[in-house]
Write a structure and sequence with these properties.
Elements: E1 15-16, E2 19-20, E3 28-29, E4 32-33, H1 65-81, H2 87-103, H3 108-115, H4 118-126, H5 128-132, H6 140-165, H7 169-178, H8 183-213, H9 219-228, H10 230-250, H11 267-285
Antiparallel strand pairs: 1-4, 2-3
Helix pairs in contact: 1-6, 1-11, 2-6, 3-6, 4-6, 7-8, 8-10
Length: 286
């Protein structure tokens, strides 16, 4: 794999960013510790979870994290504080979501699939809203009210998913810290980010163990085994989490995740923020 050098490494650390591409993947970038010579090839592991999307190189990914956080917050507040969305307004917001996804070079199926996970939870809440207003669930007004609540929840979730997919977790946490979010919240988010991965790896190990010892289990029998082992999973994940925490402390963890740089908000970032604020204002007052 060849690459182009984006900036020379800082003397003494060998750290630099550059865009590059792998077969079958979109261009992406992240820091490397090697000499910035265009002729060199290199190999490195990539995360296979949702975090891998944060390495895809795009104009939106290169924007300052604080600007993206504030822009997302403005759009979410605009949607939440707006009157019930009309069909045209919802269609325009969906078009905005598709346009931003395309500009960020993100896989639409992955991003849209994750954003739709909120629909069952929002649907359960939406079912109660017509009853609170004294409307029938099957009436036109009741269906419109339920559809508006579900659509509003999906739009807000979609914007948050786009923020998470275009901002590396460490940069996102640093942006929240620089925006004066209470340190305890930033620390809590950092540990959630770390230990969700721990829980996922522990669950994968448990599934591998079950598949190797009882490959014939299917359906309800497999679910019953998982139910019986749920307590064991949490105990093992807790113990592993303590080991991870001890390892982090021994390596100098001080409550913040390390970042390669402290980006500065520029003209393009301010333009992004102003555009988002104007869009949120347009949604809220119409």
């Amino acid at each position: 794999m060849s690459r182009e050098s984006e900036r020379p490494p800082v003397p003494g650390d060998g750290l630099h960013h550059h865009p590059h591409r792998h077969p079958g993947e979109a261009p992406h970038r992240h820091p490397h510790h090697h000499a910035a010579e265009p002729s060199l090839s290199h190999a490195h592991p990539h995360p296979r979870s949702f975090e891998r999307l944060t390495y895809i190189d795009s104009p939106l990914r290169r924007r300052e994290p604080r600007a993206k956080v504030l822009a997302c917050l403005a759009l979410v507040l605009g949607v939440v504080l707006a009157p019930p969305l009309t069909g045209l307004e919802f269609a325009l917001l969906v078009a905005l979501f598709l346009a931003v996804t395309a500009m960020a070079r993100l896989p639409l199926r992955s991003v849209a699939g994750r954003s739709l996970l909120v629909v069952p939870f929002a649907g359960g809440i939406a079912l109660l809203s017509p009853l609170r207003e004294g409307l029938s669930l099957l009436s036109a007004e009741g269906l419109a009210l339920m559809g508006g609540l579900i659509g509003r929840a999906w739009v807000c979730t979609a914007f948050v998913i786009l923020l998470a997919a275009t901002t590396p977790p460490a940069d996102l946490l640093l942006a929240l810290k620089r925006l004066r979010l209470p340190h305890v919240f930033v620390l809590l988010l950092a540990f959630i980010y770390r230990y969700v991965g721990v829980m996922g790896r522990q669950l994968h190990a448990l599934r591998t163990a079950i598949a190797s010892r009882a490959p014939h289990l299917r359906g309800l029998a497999l679910l019953r085994v998982y139910g019986n082992l749920a307590g064991n999973l949490f105990v093992r994940a807790y113990e592993r989490g303590e080991r991870v925490h001890a390892a982090m402390l021994s390596r100098g963890f001080d409550g913040t995740l390390p970042t390669a740089a402290r980006p500065v908000m520029g003209a393009s970032d301010i333009l992004l923020l102003l555009t988002a604020c104007l869009g949120a204002l347009a949604v809220a007052i119409t």
